């Protein structure tokens, strides 16, 4: 039976963000960074009888290895929490999911690799403008840097983000670096990034075998390296990882609106595999159909969809040739000024995949669900990834709040689709 968690429900989400801003030091007490070497993988069990089964773990020491030091701290562990590729040679995505593979204090893979790049590569990387979603955005330099200055800038920007550095490099640059490091230089950019990450991880391990909790292994999504944080919410079990596209099933909506969270999640289980039909021109049609299959009554209010407690949102996903799932676009949360943060206090995310239908509009189905409660970490991620942009027809002045798709890697939803090691 799913337990109805109350994480983060004792204060409003806006207050949580303000409090989180005022207590940035919480990350040093174990509340924080999903992109670093700490994940929740040791706290979850993907083969359990029920997702998110509660365990009394109390307080557990967690070791964190940083580039230049090792820190030991304690944090409370919530046992309820389980925790078509584009070749980017000409326009690499410099905004990567962070990954720190450091295990040996004497070796930093980024520093080591940067010294083996050509001067032209180093200067190009140093001149890249930082993406607004990066952890520590940096302005582009206002002048041309010499090689020494460029090297220092590259190391400062990516010293704890080897994935980000490799994602920012073109295929030619990756091949040159592979040859300099005497590793296989054949293949396309995604394969070269994976090979070079392995080499960097090997350097930083210094011959010591470590587990994925200390050196999380990235997966390749959309041609780039992505580190998936372990799930921190509730999700259904799976016989295999990554999840397969579910076979079609007949809809079985409840006769009345669910009265409890457990009943809502049971309805979500029954929605998996149901075909939603053609969408038409209404971009929100699939979301409305999915909500109706859950038995959620549309009230048209600013509060969350289900009884003012749980917001129901679909998030578009696609399966790559490798079998891994990725989020394909930023989901809309709300119109600006309509309480978008309140809707993230407790969200039931429905992973929705499109299905091509020859000669007709695409169909869609629900692959899985993920129930995420608000806490200080979700507040931090929301502050980092929420953004505004125009919402509506061309030329509209209306603006909506959107959640960047990388949120779902850092908040654990991707791992609930793909599994984690």
Task: Explain how this protein is built.
By secondary structure, the chain is an alpha+beta fold. Among the domains are: 109-226; 261-418, DNA mismatch repair MutH/Restriction endonuclease, type II (ECO RV Endonuclease, Chain A), CATH 3.40.600.10. The protein contains twelve helices and eleven strands. The strands form four sheets. Strands 6-5-8-9 form a four-stranded mixed β-sheet. The chain has a three-stranded antiparallel β-sheet with strand order 7-11-10. The model is unreliable at 1-98 (pLDDT under 50).
Topology:
Layout: H1 13-22, E1 59-65, E2 70-76, H2 109-114, H3 119-127, H4 147-158, H5 162-167, H6 171-180, H7 189-205, E3 219-221, E4 224-226, H8 261-271, H9 285-293, E5 311-319, E6 325-327, E7 332-335, E8 346-355, E9 363-373, H10 376-385, E10 386-390, E11 399-403, H11 407-410, H12 413-418
Parallel strand pairs: 5-8
Antiparallel strand pairs: 1-2, 3-4, 5-6, 7-11, 8-9, 10-11
Short description:
It contains 12 helices and 11 strands.
Q: What descriptors fit this protein?
A:
12 helices; alpha+beta; single chain; 421 residues; three-stranded antiparallel sheet; four-stranded mixed sheet; ECO RV Endonuclease, Chain A; 11 strands; 16% strand
Mean pLDDT across all amino acids: 79
CATH topology of the domain at 261-418: ECO RV Endonuclease, Chain A
Number of strands: 11
Task: Count the DSSP helices.
Answer: 12
CATH architecture of the domain at 261-418: 3-Layer(aba) Sandwich
Tell me roughly what share of residues is in helical segments: 25-40%
Proportion of residues in β-strands? 15-25%
Structural class designation = alpha+beta
- Taking pLDDT < 50 over at least 5 consecutive residues as the criterion, the unreliable ranges are 1-98
CATH superfamily of the domain at 261-418: DNA mismatch repair MutH/Restriction endonuclease, type II
- Report strand order across the widest sheet: 6-5-8-9
Sketch the topology as an H/E string, one letter per element.
HEEHHHHHHEEHHEEEEEHEEHH
* CATH top-level class of the domain at 261-418: Alpha Beta
For the biggest sheet, the summary is: 4 strands, mixed
């Amino acid at each position: 039976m799913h337990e109805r968690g109350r994480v983060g429900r004792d204060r409003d989400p806006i207050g949580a963000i303000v409090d989180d801003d005022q207590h940035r030091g919480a990350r040093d007490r174990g509340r924080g960074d999903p992109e670093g070497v700490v994940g929740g993988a040791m706290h979850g069990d993907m083969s359990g009888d029920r997702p998110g089964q509660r365990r009394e773990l109390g307080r557990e020491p967690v070791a964190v290895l940083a580039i230049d030091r090792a820190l030991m701290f304690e944090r409370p562990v919530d046992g309820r929490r389980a925790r078509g590729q584009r070749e980017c040679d000409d326009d690499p995505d410099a905004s990567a999911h962070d990954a720190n593979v450091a295990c040996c204090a004497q070796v930093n893979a980024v520093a080591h690799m940067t010294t083996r790049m050509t001067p032209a590569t180093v200067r190009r990387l140093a001149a890249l403008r930082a993406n607004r979603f990066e952890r520590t955005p940096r302005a582009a330099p206002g002048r041309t840097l010499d090689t020494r200055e460029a090297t220092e800038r590259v190391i400062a920007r990516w010293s704890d983000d080897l994935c980000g550095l490799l994602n920012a490099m073109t295929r030619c640059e990756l091949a040159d670096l592979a040859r300099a490091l005497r590793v296989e230089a054949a293949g396309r950019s995604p394969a070269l990034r994976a090979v070079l990450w392995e080499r960097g991880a090997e350097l930083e391990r210094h011959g010591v075998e470590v587990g994925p909790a200390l050196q999380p292994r990235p997966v390749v999504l959309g041609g780039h390296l992505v580190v998936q944080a372990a799930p921190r919410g509730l999700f259904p079990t799976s016989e295999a990882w990554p999840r397969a596209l579910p076979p079609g099933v007949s809809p079985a909506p409840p006769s009345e609106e669910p009265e409890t969270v457990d009943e809502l999640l049971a309805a979500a289980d029954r929605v998996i595999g149901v075909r939603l039909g053609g969408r038409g021109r209404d971009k929100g049609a699939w979301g409305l159909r999915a909500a109706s299959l859950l038995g959620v009554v549309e009230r048209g209010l600013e509060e969350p969809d289900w009884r003012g407690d749980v917001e129901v949102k679909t998030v578009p996903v696609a399966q790559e040739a490798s079998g891994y799932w990725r989020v394909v676009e930023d989901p809309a949360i709300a119109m600006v000024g309509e309480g978008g943060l309140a809707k993230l206090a407790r969200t039931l995310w429905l992973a929705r995949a499109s299905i091509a239908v020859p000669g007709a509009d695409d169909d869609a189905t629900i692959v899985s669900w993920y129930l995420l409660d608000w806490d200080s970490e979700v507040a931090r991620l929301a502050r980092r990834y929420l953004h505004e942009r125009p919402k509506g027809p061309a030329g509209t002045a209306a603006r909506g709040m959107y959640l960047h798709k990388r949120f779902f890697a850092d908040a654990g939803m991707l791992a609930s689709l793909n599994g984690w090691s």
